[in-house]
Amino acid sequence: MKRSADSALKSVLLSGILLTMPTRTPVPFPGNRPPSSSQLTANPQVRVALDWFDAHRSWIDDEQARLTEIPAPTFQEAERAAAIRVLLSAVGLEVFTDKIGNVIGLLRGSSDKEMVILSAHLDTVFPADTDVKVHREKSRMTAPGISDNGAGLAALVAVARAIHEARIQPQRSILFVADVGEEGEGNLRGMRAVVDAYRDRLKAVIVLDGSSVDHVTTKALASRRMEVIITGPGGHSWSDFGIPNPINALIRGSVRFINTRVPANPRTTYNLGQIAGGTSVNSVPHDASLKVDLRSENEDELLRLESALRDCITAGVRDETEAARDRSKGKLDWKLNLLGSRPGGELPANSTLLSGLRAADEFLGNESRQERASTDANIPLSVGIDAIAIGAGGNGGGAHSLQEWYESAGRELGLRRVLLTLLGASGVVAEKTR
Ligand SMILES: [Zn+2]
């Protein structure tokens, strides 16, 4: 049942009175309950921060474009990190770069014993020589990485700046984190390091990834990324014909593997994503390699899929060896490397972080569905720390493609949703106002 507008107004007024009472005693979360969105928005400073986004849309858009135009392939995020460092320093945070390249800006709470993190990953899937020039047409921007994670990074600095300009002091300390190594073979190394460093004090992690307001990732999708490498003697395509060929073996094994049946429920997927090998069309190759991404809602299915890959490659190498008519020049060798492993995990249904997000959605008149995905939130979720991944507002599409786009119209809704969820998790120290 919906509350009437009247009683909602009363409770806003009441909580407004509570929040403006002349205390600044840091009592984080009495009764272990975070402040509700209406309690938060009764605070005049929070309202200033909420309004800040409207008035600064073009600044946020411009920063997003500027950051997106700094190439940041995974493992080469330093230049973009330096730009974020400048932006976070400009809003009064204590900023430092950790030893693997994460930029961390600290906003001290009234208590330093507990912390919450707002994060956005710095890296993109695009190689350093990709043209990342942003093409703008009205509020639409097109460029590789503009949404994933230009939108998240722009939101990270916008929320930090809104909180700064509104002079909000949180109860729990807030760490604004621009982290490295989220994509591909980065294997979430940035978030792993941050969670490692703050684990004891960390109460919640909010990950900003991409655009939109229609979802909240509360379940971490487990994945494993494997690389198959097959090597052989190599030789001339004509004179050495008949020696075992690593590419043939890889194809034989791959065809077996893609005939593996995977369940629709629990959803389990595989992708042969990258293939390489050989030196020329008229050489029997020395090597062939293949990168495979395996994912499942269920860890047991994931392990089963990994062993299927191993069995299929074993069989492919055996088939090729048996088919070879000349084994005198050498044999095939192969190995399977684990490139990355992302642990699974799930946010408990009664988590205060989730109820904070739900309250923000309700306050803003937004609806969102829960999702399972592979994001930086996998790391805190896998060790039992409350975490969600959400979009940064606006709309976007074509993630991981050269046609990636972002539309900033309406992004304020997403930014307010992030701000309210963050302050719900951190708490706000009520100002002495009278
Ligand atoms: Zn992303």
- Give a list of the ligands: zinc ion
Sketch the major β-sheet. 9 strands, mixed
**Overall strand count:** 19
Q: Given this structure, which CATH class of the largest domain is correct?
A: Alpha Beta
How many individual helices?
Answer: 12
Taking the alpha carbons of the first and last residues, their distance comes to 36 Å
Uncertain spans, ≥5 residues at pLDDT below 50?
1-28
Structural class: alpha+beta
Q: What do the pLDDT scores average to?
A: 91
Our estimate of the beta-strand percent is: 25-35%
The rounded Rg comes to 25 Å
Helix content: 25-40%
**CATH architecture of the largest domain, please?**
3-Layer(aba) Sandwich
CATH superfamily of the largest domain: Zn peptidases
CATH topology of the largest domain, anyone?
Aminopeptidase
Number of domains: 2
Apparent shape:
elongated
Description:
This protein is an alpha+beta fold. The protein has 2 domains: 9-220 and 344-426, Aminopeptidase; 222-342, 2-Layer Sandwich (Alpha-Beta Plaits). Helix content is 36%, strand content 25%. It contains 12 helices and 19 strands. The chain has helices at residues 5-20, 37-42, 44-55, 57-68, 78-89, 150-165, 189-198, 246-258, 299-323, 352-364, 378-382, 411-426; strands at residues 94-97, 103-107, 111-121, 135-137, 140-142, 172-179, 202-208, 215-220, 222-231, 235-236, 268-277, 283-284, 287-296, 333-342, 345-346, 369-373, 386-390, 395-397, 405-407. The strands form 4 sheets. Strands 1, 2, 3, 6, 7, 8, 15, 16 and 17 form a 9-stranded mixed sheet that branches. It has a 4-stranded antiparallel sheet with strand order 4-5-19-18, with no helix packed on it. Helix 3 (44-55) packs across helix 6 (150-165) and helix 10 (352-364) packs antiparallel against helix 12 (411-426). The protein is elongated. 48% of the residues are buried. The structure holds zinc ion. Zinc ion (ZN) binds next to loops.
